[in-house]
Amino acid sequence: MSALNRLNNYLQRTKREAHLSWEETSYGPPNALDWKVKCKINGQVYGEATSRRKNEAKEMAATMALQRLGQ
């Protein structure tokens, strides 16, 4: 199961899913974008990652958030 799914499931179990948000920023030339993704819970950053692929950065940020939540 992906970290995104595990994070969503955890937040649903703890009744906090409405407080999950993502901040996605791209930078660099159009042919070589880098993506920086922040995973926020209640407005606080729980995970942050950068990758050439947006989905990969989001997955890494979700993994960091799970670690911070002790999951």
UniProtKB/TrEMBL annotation:
UniProt keyword RNA-binding, yes or no: yes
Residues in DRBM domain copies: 2-71
Gene3D superfamilies: 3.30.160.20
Superkingdom of origin organism: Eukaryota
InterPro entries cross-referenced by the UniProt entry: dsRBD_dom (IPR014720)
Keywords from the UniProt entry: RNA-binding
Example GO molecular function: RNA binding
Membrane-spanning parts: none
SMART domains named among the record's database cross-references: DSRM
Protein name per UniProt: DRBM domain-containing protein
